[in-house]
Amino acid sequence: MKLDKDFIFGASTNAFQIEGARNLGGRTDSIWDEFTKRCFHIPPAGKNDREINSIAISADFYHKYQTDIRIMKRLGLNGLVYNIDWTRIFSKNSQEVNWEGIKFYDNVFATLRANNIKPIPILFHWDTPMWAELQGGFENRAILEWFQGYVATVFKYLGKYTDVWFVNDENSTFTLDGYLSDYLPPGKNSKEGFARAIHHLNLCTALTKIEFEKAKVAGNVSAQALLGIDHDWSPGIPYRIEDEKACQEYNLWFKNFFLDPNLKGTYPPVFQQWLAMQGLSDIIQSGDMELLKNNCVDLIGWNYYRPAYISRDDYQEKQGEMQITSKTFFVKGFKQVFPKENVRYTSWNWIIDPTMLGPGAQALWAEYQKPLMIVENGLGAFDDKSGELILDYNRAEYLSLHFAEVKKAIAQGVKFIGYSLWTYCDIFSPSGGYRKDYGLVAVDFNSPNKTRMPKLSYVWYQRLINSGGENLAHDDHDTLQQLLKDELSTWDFWYQ
User: Fold this and answer.
1) Which keywords describe this protein according to UniProt (predicted)?
2) 483 is a domain residue
């Protein structure tokens, strides 16, 4: 089945992971700048321990975006999902626009458009400006006004470039790991902080929808433009028959709790019950639910990497049964387990299983009746970069198996508008630093020029795009190697 000509074949990336130039162009620090400086840690080489490294330069997209866009055009992309940086646009406070930041994104988006690549901006991805965090960040209700002013400015000056937008990326990971633990910044370890942050994020989305509609009326955004939210739900699989109820509870929290507020304008009753148990009666204020109900968004972005095996939280694992330690959550009744038997894992202990992408897409489509887009799907690995060719067969296989599930879902009636893999080039990973490779294009982080080179997965995706999504082959190793050799023969300084 050849996909519609308007189908988006994209790649996704994120400002604080690729951009560099952290204090150039008038920019100041975000919570990620502070976190990587304070928690800097380099474990022994080759281990899949977490590396927290400097993001001061990263892949230096700030200076190399023209080179990167040449590579994207050569690859055949017609979309780039880019998580832009609030701090680059409002560097000092909520009132003063940093025009150098607007100019930078205007240049990037104009260059993308000139190369027939649609910019698909995400307005927020975990990187609260430090000036906002010092005033309470997402725990402070004043952030609603700050965020509304930010998105209104973006729509006014950059809205002309695209008709697909997302408000946020992975609110679940940001709030669970940044407010209920200290794994991510701001590292609050606070149930109250979590509740305030997630509710304020949801209200920010509703306010963004208001500004989006205003921008349409003003002619700054296309009247047909879509605004979505992007969520990283891992569909639950009952580990045993007796775990079905636990799995349903997991999906209620990890699907509905994070999607319903901005797609239906409601919270599942379990959240209200949890707030009452915590004695948090002032989180949801008068008028909040009306704001959510009246300003639902148009589109679901979905970051699918893996499913989640779910058991009851009282299940006692047998010795040697699990790949890694089970994961418990802030609510009781279920936990995530990682069985060894008949389950594949990446070198970073992430499950490899595309089979829940189709059923998950069907569930999202059936419940919300909103178009979908895969915004992230990719393989983090230790790529072997010691030879002339970077032969990441494992990544090509992973992507092929998952894209096949997208096509099946489309054939079954799910309205997918596009697929955007994670990620275009190697970047800083919050869970693995620079040792966890995700890109189709390698970056030599030891080079002063951050030299780019294509991997085998690059030519795999190039061929898939050129075939309109039909050529899913990934195990024709000799052909892919030859394609990579041919690509490298003309990979001159314009692409490095």
Assistant:
1) Glycosidase, Hydrolase
2) yes
